[in-house]
Amino acid sequence: xxxxxxxxxxxxxxxxxxxxxxxxxxxxxxxxxxxxxNTPHRHCRxxxxxxxxxxxxxxxxxxxIVRADPSTCxxxxxxxxxxxxxxxxxxxxxx
Length: 95
What we know:
four-stranded mixed β-sheet
């Protein structure tokens, strides 16, 4: 999994866009309560969504989940072992 922090966009390792992350409520992971199903995911009371912990999911799983429900909320941490930070800024060429 790859994450571009400048655009808050998550990609598969193959470069396919999974989702651009945005929380209008600006909730932090520590403000969320444990999910009701005893998984590592959390629940947001502000919007009543489950927030998926991406550190325990594969690229294929995340892509399938987000394709099925584009409004899926995701937690991404820069220190998680299955994540590489990238910069996908457009190539502006050499002057």
